[in-house]
């Protein structure tokens, strides 16, 4: 613009200067601008020419939205960072431009913390093909529990309790995936095979057990599809699959013990921890009986 010119700015720390940062106006002292080792100290200590307009405003071609935060940080050595992830990124860009290392580190730490907080407690992949299923199972070192749920696979009408039992299976899957998310990979299949509701359990890349929850029942005039909720059996297989956490493979005696049905009949636990403890206690008891 006409009247703009470059000049060197140098004065006492108490001298005030007028700044036009991207159209936003600021008024501060040279002492604030030169308080720490950064680009602003270079600009206002007479070592670097700055652009000034005809009214004496020093022009800085940056967005002025976060420059007030920059000034407050220079004044006090600390500043409250924005709550928004996006605004912290914007402030980080300004801190990097003005070479303010401490504020740059604070922004990076705040962003890392927000990323950790945003990390979900539990991720359940939703698979869409057999190939995806195999890739997931073979690429993890964890045991795997898969729930196939597809209500529309049915050829007949459902029994009166089937819809309720379908929901119970889904709710149990969600509960187990939260309880064991750090130890077991849970995956859900909503378009696979001809099954309606089926649990599969994998260890070391191989299927170890399966619990099918559907059957055909015959009425006087037609067939019906019945969906069951074998809660105790599902708990049993889930606890059994924990044996595959070991890289060296599970104890073969314990595998044999968990294969005997009815071991967890009458399951009535008051908490997830008690369920796991009581289940493992039954496995140990079965192992001792087999040895004797």
From TrEMBL:
GO terms for cellular component: nucleus. It comes from the Eukaryota. Pathway: Protein modification; protein ubiquitination. Keywords: Nucleus, Ubl conjugation pathway. It is found in: Nucleus. GO terms for biological process: protein homooligomerization. Its main location: nucleus. Belongs to the BACURD family. This is BTB domain-containing protein. It comes from Pieris macdunnoughi. The lineage of its organism: Eukaryota, Metazoa, Ecdysozoa, Arthropoda, Hexapoda.
């Amino acid at each position: 613009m006409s009247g703009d010119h470059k000049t060197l700015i140098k004065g006492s720390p108490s001298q005030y200067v007028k700044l036009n940062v991207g159209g936003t106006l600021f008024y501060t002292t040279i002492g604030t601008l030169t308080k720490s080792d950064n680009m602003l100290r270079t600009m206002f200590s007479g070592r670097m020419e700055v652009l000034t307009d005809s009214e004496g405003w020093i022009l800085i071609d940056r967005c002025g939205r976060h420059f007030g935060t920059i000034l407050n940080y220079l004044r006090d050595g600390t500043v409250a960072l924005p709550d928004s992830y996006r605004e912290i990124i914007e402030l980080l860009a300004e801190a990097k431009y003005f070479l303010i290392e401490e504020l740059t580190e604070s922004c990076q730490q705040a962003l890392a913390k927000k990323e950790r907080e945003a990390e979900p407690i539990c991720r359940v992949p939703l698979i869409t093909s057999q190939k995806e299923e195999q890739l997931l199972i073979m690429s993890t070192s964890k045991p795997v529990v898969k729930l196939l749920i597809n209500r529309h696979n049915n050829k007949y009408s459902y029994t009166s309790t089937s819809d309720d039992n379908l929901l119970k299976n889904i709710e149990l899957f969600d509960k187990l995936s939260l309880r064991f998310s750090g130890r077991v990979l849970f995956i859900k299949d909503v378009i696979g095979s001809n099954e309606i509701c089926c649990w599969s359990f994998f260890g070391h890349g191989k299927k170890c057990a399966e619990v099918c929850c559907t059957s055909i029942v015959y009425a006087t005039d037609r067939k019906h599809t019945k969906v069951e909720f074998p809660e105790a059996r599902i708990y049993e297989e889930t606890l059994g699959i924990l044996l595959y956490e070991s890289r060296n493979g599970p104890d073969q005696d314990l595998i044999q013990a968990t294969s005997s049905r009815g071991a967890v009949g009458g399951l009535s636990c008051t908490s997830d921890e008690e369920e796991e403890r009581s289940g493992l206690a039954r496995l140990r008891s079965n192992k001792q009986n087999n040895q004797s």
